[in-house]
Design goal:
The chain is mostly helical. The longest helix is centred in the N-terminal third of the chain and has 43 residues.
């Protein structure tokens, strides 16, 4: 029965459409409020980085700088070796992320496809390792790295970040490996493909969203990490960006707020750019997986 032949349905249809529009508008409003909530600290940081010392010391804070200036950025570069520390952080974060993902892919595949006591022990290790606080492991970790002559070296820090990121990377990739239909691997085996060829040609392309997500997580974790970098790196020329930021705080705990905000903005940019570059891969991989499925 159509709406034209039923007056009751004809009257109810506009009300349903209005309710749907109101509900959709409410969803967009809630999403906009959530985005503002997430973006507010970054916007406030950017605004602070352009304010003058007089405006920063005012008892009446302003939302936007009255006279925007780049002086804080110039002072930040003059006070600390930001470029060198950023290169150190970039080298460490990229290396740690790539190595962690390269190790996690075959390990996650074996743990999912070959169930054994070893794989079960690996799963237990993943869960237990996430419960250890940094302070609990720093002393034995320092002793091990000292025996390996990796204290105060970027390779030593990369090794620490790889080990620290592996449990979560393995846990994340296991879910993506389970989503790959085993029938595809069986078909590849019937065509004469070996296990490594199947992993590289069949499984790996379908893991693109998981690889990108794991790579992003590992990179951001290594880029933002502070405690290990503070303890293991002593030479100023080897320190990472997160450690250099602490140099803008004086001995009495008084922060040079303007240059600190400028340096913090510069420290935030690489993670935003990294996410912007990889998000298309992430979305594209999800769409490709949906089409293949």
């Amino acid at each position: 029965m159509s709406d034209a032949t039923n007056p009751g349905l004809a009257k109810a249809a506009p009300a349903r459409r209005r309710a749907a529009r109101v509900g959709r508008a409410g969803q967009y409003l809630a999403l906009a409020a959530y985005l503002v909530f997430l973006a507010f600290p970054l916007l406030w940081l950017v605004s602070t980085s352009f304010k003058s010392p007089q405006e920063l010391g005012s008892i009446d804070p302003t939302w936007f700088p009255r006279e925007p200036s780049l002086d804080n950025y110039r002072d930040a570069f003059d006070a600390q070796p930001l470029l060198r520390s950023a290169l150190n952080s970039l080298l460490v974060a990229v290396s740690a992320a790539l190595i962690a993902v390269a190790i996690s892919v075959p390990a996650a595949y074996v743990m999912v496809r070959f169930r054994s006591r070893i794989s079960q022990a690996g799963t237990v290790w993943i869960l237990i390792s996430q419960m250890f606080p940094f302070v609990l492991v720093i002393i034995p970790l320092f002793l091990v790295l000292r025996n390996l002559h990796l204290i105060n070296s970027l390779p030593g820090l990369v090794l620490v970040y790889v080990v620290w990121n592996l449990p979560f990377a393995l846990w994340m990739l296991q879910g993506y490996v389970r989503a790959v239909p085993p029938e595809l691997e069986e078909a590849a085996a019937m065509d004469g493909a070996g296990r490594l060829r199947t992993l590289a040609s069949v499984v790996l392309p379908m893991l693109t969203p998981g690889l990108v997500a794991t790579l992003m997580f590992s990179f951001v974790t290594a880029w933002n990490e502070f405690f290990f970098a503070l303890v293991l790196l002593k030479s100023p020329e080897k320190q990472t960006m997160s450690v250099i930021l602490t140099h803008f705080i004086g001995a009495e705990g008084v922060a040079d707020l303007g240059p600190l905000a400028a340096a913090s903005v510069l420290a935030t940019l690489p993670t935003l750019l990294f996410f912007a570059l990889l998000q298309r891969r992430l979305v594209g991989g999800m769409l490709a997986g949906a089409v293949k499925g």
